[in-house]
Amino acid sequence: MTGAPPPPAPVRRPQRDPGLQPERTRLAWRRTTLASTVATVLAVKTSLHHGRTAAGITVCILCCALWLAFLTVAHRRIRALASHRPRTLAPRHATAAVLCTVAMAVCAAALIV
């Protein structure tokens, strides 16, 4: 009775039922893309409202480029979430989305000032 204890039984993880979570996440990405589009349109309107200056046109072009970059990341994520077993968001894609959002906020601050 002093023998070694029996090895633990392997733990079986149940299959994950994602339910509606991928759909909610996909809709959240779409809402965020819509908000980014509205912010870009307002930035373009603001930059061209007081006349065309080099700084205003530069910020306008930068906002449009950031919008396109964010749209690309969001579209890839929306397509990935449409699969049966969606993969997790890659860190580089998450970083790109965050950088686009922060850069857009910096551009908005530059337009207001």
Written description of the protein model:
- The longest helix is centred in the first third of the chain and has 29 residues, at 21-49.
- Helix 1 (21-49) runs antiparallel to helix 2, helix 1 (21-49) packs parallel to helix 3 (91-112) and helix 2 (54-81) runs antiparallel to helix 3 (91-112).
- The protein has 113 residues and is mostly helical.
- The protein has 3 helices and no strands.
- The chain has one domain (21-112).
- The chain has helices spanning 21-49, 54-81, 91-112.
Poorly predicted segments:
none
Q: Give the % helix.
A: 55-70%
Largest sheet: none
Structural class: mainly alpha
Structural descriptors:
elongated
Quick description:
With 113 residues, the chain is mostly helical. The protein has helices at 21-49, 54-81, 91-112. Residues 1-26 are annotated as: Disordered.
Protein topology:
Layout: H1 21-49, H2 54-81, H3 91-112
